[in-house]
Amino acid sequence: FKAKYGPKSVIGDVTQAAYLGPWLWKAAVEKAGSFDVDKVVAASPGIELKTAPEGYVKVDANHHLWSKTRIGQGQADGTFKVVAESPELIKPDPFPKGYQ
Question: What's the pTM?
Fold first, then answer.
C-alpha cells in the first residue's frame, strides 16, 4: 500500500472494512459451498482470517469480529502510534448490558 500510495498514506477504518468484507464473504461462501444467503450466514461463525489489515480476526456466533483492541496516540502527521494492545483477541460484545 505504502509503496503504491506513498509513505504518508494511511488505511482508516472504512478502508479496512471495505477490504475485509469481501474476504470474509469469500470464506463464508467457500465454507457453505453455496451462494445461498442463509447458508452463507450460517457458515460465517468460526471463520478466521490472518490477512486482515488489522491482523488476525475471527467471526463470533453473533456475527461480530473477535479482534485485538489497540490504544493509539495521535501523531502530527495524522497517523496513530499504538501505545497499548491487547495480547489476545477480544470477544465482541455488541450489546453490553445497560446499553440504551
Answer: 0.79
